[in-house]
């Protein structure tokens, strides 16, 4: 296939996809803004409302957390040359920033050992 046709076809798919994602982001921000406005004043019921939101949207929160862990495991695989699966499970249990700190410290320590 001609490269010009490839770029044209990719653009045809890209524009509606970007439009849909921007529309979803707009609706999500709008919903979050209205939810934030309807929160009670800052007191014990404020934390109750936050907890209720987290429980009502637990599946979404867990799915986003899994995606973040997968992305962090991919970064570890390419940056530190580690096992993707091991990094993914470490990310699940230690949180991605903790996993990145552990692998970063190991890389620094390995570099110091090699220079001695």
Largest sheet: none
The structural class is mainly alpha
Percent of residues in beta strands:
under 5%
Oligomer: single chain
Give the distance, in angstroms, between the N- and C-terminal Cα atoms. Answer: 55 Å
Rg calc: 21 Å
Give the overall shape, derived from the CA principal axes.
flat
Global mean pLDDT: 81
H and E string: HHHHH
DSSP strand count: 0
- Summed up, the helix count is 5
Q: Kindly state the percentage of residues in helix.
A: over 70%
Uncertain stretches = none
Can you characterise this structure?
- With 116 residues, the chain is mainly alpha-helical.
- The protein has a domain at 58-116.
- The chain is 88% helix and 0% strand.
- The chain contains five helices and no strands.
- The protein has helices at 3-37, 44-56, 58-80, 84-94, 96-115.
- α3 (58-80) crosses α4 (84-94), α3 (58-80) runs parallel beside α5 and α4 (84-94) packs across α5 (96-115).
- The longest helix has 35 residues, at 3-37.
- It is flat.
- It starts with a helix and ends with a helix.
- The mean pLDDT is 81.
List keywords for this structure.
flat, 116 residues, mainly alpha, 5 helices, single chain
Layout of helices and strands, plus pairs?
Elements: H1 3-37, H2 44-56, H3 58-80, H4 84-94, H5 96-115
Helix pairs in contact: 3-4, 3-5, 4-5
């Amino acid at each position: 296939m001609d490269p010009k046709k490839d770029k044209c076809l990719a653009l045809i798919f890209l524009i509606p996809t970007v439009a849909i994602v921007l529309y979803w982001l707009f609706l999500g921000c709008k919903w979050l803004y209205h939810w934030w406005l309807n929160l009670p004043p800052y007191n014990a019921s404020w934390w109750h409302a936050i907890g209720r939101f987290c429980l009502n949207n637990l599946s979404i929160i867990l799915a986003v957390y899994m995606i973040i862990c997968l992305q962090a495991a991919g970064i570890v695989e390419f940056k530190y040359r580690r096992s993707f699966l091991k990094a993914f499970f470490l990310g699940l249990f230690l949180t991605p920033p903790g996993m990145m700190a552990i692998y970063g410290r190991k890389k620094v320590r390995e570099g110091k050992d090699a220079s001695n």
